[in-house]
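Customer escalation, tier 2.

The customer says the design service returned an amino acid string that "doesn't look like it belongs to this structure." They asked us to rerun it and document both sides in this ticket. The original structure tokens are below, unchanged.
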């Protein structure tokens, strides 16, 4: 069995390559109904933009598999229970699944392993990272505490990413299966996620365009902070998050571009961003549940509360700050905002509105088409001062950010950021009338 998760591709798919050594192969993806239910963090694990992109990606993977005489069996239910049931039903001896950070993913694999331990081998394969754990210059338990330390360790050792592998030349046939229950999946919003199309083909087209056709990679470092320009950044992250694009294939293409065309600070900086993603992959695997605790991996307790009107104003784009509103409106409508915008709105959430960072991280999880568990929760910890950062907090001066990144107000105008509600910022007293001393933001 090939248990697909966030690795929805045939290219550079070592788990599938190993599974394809069998005489018969069952390819499975499980849709968890929990994804569409609101959690204690006031958000759903998956919103309409992410769901539409995922569904497109599953459809594309199924079409690609059918070219090999295979198919994707789509099931609905609790993943570990579905996998164990299918394994027993079809006499499966080996289950292959990609290694992914996240406590739920870990628990599901442990359940499968324990339940089927007497007759089935569960093989976890590294498909989502640039490096294999065995090649890292440190043990996972000794993961450097900051990205800078991680990068220096990797670059000092001149560590090369794991070579990518070509798509399979053939696949064994599937077992005789009745029709799956894909007809019962939640409705797909026909207008959600207009900026991205799911599947391997659009991912590889974007990679080729950004590097070899437009050559925009050569100006990436100068343009990456733009708020609303399509080609200001690579925008590869949605496909990397779903695994329709391999990080190793991406790294290969960056290196090939540098060999064939030009290498500069910008081409290095795209590799640098891949390293950030890589750091948070291992960060999630190393820290497990601490990825989701309020005190973070640093165990630093931060005084917060939950102010419903502040939270609602932030999510709906009706705060006191037009730039924050514009960014949040763009996020709700498209499932996407730039990296700079994410830092701006997260700083507002944590510092100006004094809300528990986990509510913000959960909202991003629901909304962002490129949601990645390690990068999302790790970055929120980083900004809130409880994660992989030597500083206690990252506090952005919102007025300066607006003057620098939207000086003519065109971004605010386009995304209707001037619509504001009642004041949401911190005041001289809190909800219990205790005096509050306003903090001083960083520029």
């Amino acid at each position: 069995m090939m248990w697909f998760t966030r690795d929805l591709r045939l290219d550079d798919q070592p788990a599938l390559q190993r599974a394809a050594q069998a005489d018969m192969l069952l390819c499975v993806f499980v849709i968890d109904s929990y994804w569409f239910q609101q959690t204690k963090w006031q958000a759903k694990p998956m919103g309409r933009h992410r769901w539409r992109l995922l569904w497109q990606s599953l459809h594309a993977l199924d079409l690609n598999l059918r070219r090999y005489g295979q198919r994707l069996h789509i099931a609905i239910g609790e993943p570990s229970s579905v996998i164990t049931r299918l394994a027993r039903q079809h006499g499966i001896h080996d289950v292959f699944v990609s290694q992914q950070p996240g406590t739920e993913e870990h628990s599901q694999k442990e359940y499968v392993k324990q339940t089927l331990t007497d007759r089935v081998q569960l093989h976890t394969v590294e498909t989502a990272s640039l490096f294999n754990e065995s090649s890292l210059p440190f043990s996972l338990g000794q993961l450097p505490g900051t990205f800078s330390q991680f990068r220096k360790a990797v670059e000092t050792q001149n560590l090369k990413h794991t070579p990518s592998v070509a798509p399979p030349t053939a696949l064994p046939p599937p077992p005789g299966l009745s029709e799956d229950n894909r007809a019962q999946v939640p409705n797909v919003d026909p207008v959600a996620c207009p900026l991205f199309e799911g599947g391997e083909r659009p991912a590889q087209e974007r990679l080729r365009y950004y590097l070899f056709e437009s050559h925009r990679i050569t100006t990436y470092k100068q343009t990456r902070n733009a708020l609303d320009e399509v080609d200001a950044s690579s925008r590869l992250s949605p496909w990397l998050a779903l695994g329709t694009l391999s990080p190793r294939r991406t790294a290969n293409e960056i290196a090939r571009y540098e060999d064939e065309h030009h290498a500069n600070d910008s081409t290095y900086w795209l590799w640098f961003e891949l390293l950030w993603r890589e750091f948070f992959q291992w960060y999630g695997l190393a820290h497990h549940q601490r990825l989701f605790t309020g005190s973070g991996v640093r165990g630093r307790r931060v005084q917060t509360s939950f102010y419903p009107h502040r939270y609602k104003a932030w999510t709906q784009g009706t705060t006191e700050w037009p730039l924050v509103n514009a960014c949040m409106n763009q996020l709700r409508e498209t499932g996407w905002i730039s990296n700079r915008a994410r830092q701006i709105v997260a700083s507002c959430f944590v510092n100006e509105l004094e809300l528990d960072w986990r509510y913000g991280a959960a909202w991003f999880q629901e909304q962002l088409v490129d949601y990645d568990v390690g990068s999302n929760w790790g970055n929120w910890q980083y900004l809130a001062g409880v994660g992989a950062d030597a500083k206690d907090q990252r506090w952005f001066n919102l007025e300066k950010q607006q003057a620098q990144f939207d000086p003519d107000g065109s971004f605010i105008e386009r995304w209707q950021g001037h619509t504001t509600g009642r004041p949401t910022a911190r005041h001289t007293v809190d909800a219990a009338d205790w005096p509050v001393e306003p903090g001083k933001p960083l520029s």
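Tier 2 assessment: The sequence is consistent with the input. The chain is about 45% helix and 5% strand. The beta strands are 2-4, 27-31, 72-76, 94-98, 121-125. Sent an explanation to the customer and offered a walkthrough call.
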